[in-house]
Design goal:
Helix content: 25-40%
Number of helices: 23
Largest sheet: 7 strands, mixed
Radius of gyration: 30 Å
Number of domains: 3
CATH topology of the largest domain: Rossmann fold
CATH class of the largest domain: Alpha Beta
Strand order of the largest sheet: 15-14-16-17-13-18-21
CATH superfamily of the largest domain: P-loop containing nucleotide triphosphate hydrolases
Distance between the termini: 83 Å
Length: 587
């Protein structure tokens, strides 16, 4: 146990005791620490100094570079805030010769210093932060993100190749800013930091596909990782468990939220950052790529008086964007709309948005029950993932509410067996379902460099099968197999990927009386598919083929995200009667 001098407030302790005390590791340690902080606070008041409980301060690792770790330990002094040449220091013994020597040196270097008295155990705990950095790297620039700096970053990043040279010559905070702005400029949705044995790969997910941007050496990545953890509110001294955090930066009037996820790996922590632009343009269904029968049913869904509208697909398939587009269209003065999200990705004016907190018991299920007591007309929940949420959602749909949500299934019709597997009974599924759509995102060929290439034999075979299937459903649709199809090439406009932007492909069905009877009778997925097929539903693969024939995307893109023909249940096309071609889908 530490010896404590009540007259001076000094504590003889080691780093482990400081850590235990600062975190309240034991009841006795917590009491000792409270007493020590009280004595230090009174001591500061008598000396006319500012007091700080430094163990409770989240310290930016860049600030620590102002002093070498050896010097900081010897002088029991910690820099905890810095703007330009203004710096705040926490120290335990103002009259200590080594402390005075450090303060004098910093003043000679041109720093304006503000000193704060802290307890010795608090200082020793704060000094643990030095273990997350390797050696001194004095900061010469301000750690403030402002519009002028962002504009400067954008001007300097002419292309992704310039990023590597930039981040090797700046502070970790500026390096992080350069990478974030570079991702924003290229339209990336995610930044991936992947540590390996001798290098760290940084990749951007652009239009749904990861593109390698640069490689970092492990020492540079160490500084960058600490800065990323600090900004996103993660614990710097924890590296062996997953963590989640969030921060933001502003570009002019745009607020960019960044969701950060970390996991421990063999060669260090791996980070993935999701960029969420608060000023992202609200797109229409047409701009998202929906057309024909899909577009007609989506617009009809906006007029439903009640029922569940579900959008299915894997992560990154555009489900949330589609739901936000629907919410924007439904956002009228006469409608009370409440959302329950994890997290809130985009902020919508006029809509009440709530974020769940599983750690505090605020889950989708419990949150939805609370939302329904708020007298909403329309409810959107981020995902149906358990029986509690599914039952409450179905009950809401049956009691006069329109409920929008997402589900992870590979196709639209698999929503029914998926809800049944969760535990929802057929007598709840059948009357509560309204409209179900499955979707994927495919990249659009770059209009500046796309070329046409002759059809290969394998491509011709796949397209022929898909076109024949479409014609069986819509005989009047004018479809001819082209001699050439689009091919991605690559130019500066598209960062040499050959693609620019994304478009949705989807399949959709309405819950008709016939389908309700089949669900209640617990028919198989194939039988349910035949019913919606008879209604005129094209599969995602067939919708993708139409976009290939219209020159929007490539066949390889459609095949990357879904099957073109082989995913259909056997004989389903032959059993489906022909229907009238939607006017907007005619060639």
């Amino acid at each position: 146990m530490a010896d404590q001098n009540l007259l001076t407030g000094q504590v003889k302790t080691d780093a482990h005791l400081a850590l235990a005390s600062a975190t309240g590791g034991t009841p006795l340690g917590s009491i000792n620490r409270e007493l020590e902080e009280k004595v230090t606070r009174e001591r500061a008041q008598k000396m006319g100094m500012n007091y700080i409980d430094i163990a409770e301060v989240h310290i930016n690792p860049d600030y620590l570079h102002v002093l070498e770790s050896r010097v900081a330990y010897e002088a029991l002094i910690v820099p905890f805030f810095k703007v330009g040449k203004k710096i705040r220091l926490a120290l335990a013994h103002p009259t200590n010769p080594k402390t005075q020597e450090v303060i004098k040196r910093l003043k000679n270097d041109g720093y304006a210093i503000n000193v704060n008295l802290a307890s010795e155990s608090g200082i020793r705990f704060a000094l643990e932060s030095y273990k997350s950095i390797d050696g001194p790297s004095p900061i010469q620039t301000e750690n403030i993100i402002d519009e002028a700096k962002i504009d400067s970053y954008q001007a300097e990043i002419e292309n992704l190749g310039a990023l590597k040279q930039k981040i090797e010559t700046v502070t970790s905070e500026e390096a992080l800013n350069f990478i974030s702005v570079g991702a924003l400029k290229t339209g990336a949705s995610d930044i991936h930091y992947q540590p390996e044995e001798k290098t760290v790969t940084v990749r951007f997910r652009i239009d749904g596909v990861l593109q390698k941007v640069l490689e970092l050496d492990p020492s540079t990545y160490s500084y960058l990782g600490n800065q990323l953890k600090f900004k996103s509110g993660m614990r710097l001294n924890v590296t062996n468990i997953p963590q989640d955090g969030r921060y933001y930066f502003k570009v002019n009037d745009r607020k960019i939220d960044v969701r950060v996820s970390s996991i421990p790996t063999e060669y260090g922590e791996s980070f993935v950052c999701r960029l969420l632009d608060s000023k992202q343009k609200n797109l229409s269904f047409e701009e998202l790529g929906f057309e024909g029968r899909t577009l007609t049913i989506l617009k009809k869904a906006l007029t439903l008086p009640n029922g569940m509208i579900l959008v299915t697909g894997p992560t990154g398939s555009g489900k949330t964007t589609t739901l936000y587009t629907m919410l924007t269209a439904l956002n009228q003065p006469e409608n009370k709309i409440i959302t329950l999200e994890d997290p809130i990705e985009y902020h919508l004016s006029g809509i009440t948005q709530s974020q769940i907190n599983e750690k505090r018991g605020y889950s989708f299920g419990s949150g939805l029950r609370a939302i329904l007591r708020q007298d909403p007309d329309i409810v959107m929940i981020g995902e149906i993932r358990d029986l509690d949420t599914a039952e409450t959602s179905a009950q809401a749909a049956l009691t006069g509410h329109v409920l929008l949500s997402t589900l992870h299934t590979n196709s639209a019709i698999e929503t029914v067996p998926r809800l049944a597997n969760i535990g929802l009974k057929p007598f709840m599924i059948a009357p509560s379902l309204g409209v179900v759509m499955a979707q994927r995102l495919v990249r659009k060929v770059c209009p500046y460099c796309a070329i046409q290439k002759p059809l290969e034999e394998s491509e011709r075979k796949n397209l022929t099968i898909a076109v024949e299937q479409i014609k069986k459903i819509y005989p009047s649709m004018a479809l001819d197999l082209p001699a050439t199809v689009p091919q991605a090439k690559g130019c500066e406009k598209c960062n040499n990927t050959g693609y620019l932007g994304q478009v949705s492909i989807g399949e959709i069905f309405e819950n008709t009386d016939e389908l309700k009877d089949a669900i209640l009778s617990e028919k198989s997925a194939t039988e349910l598919f035949n019913i919606v097929r008879a209604q005129g539903m094209l599969t995602m693969g067939e919708d993708g083929v139409l976009k290939v024939l219209h020159g929007v995307t490539t066949l390889s893109e459609v095949e990357r995200v879904t099957f073109i023909a082989s995913s259909l249940p056997e004989n389903s096309v032959d059993q489906a009667p022909a229907v009238e071609t939607p006017a907007s889908q005619e060639s």
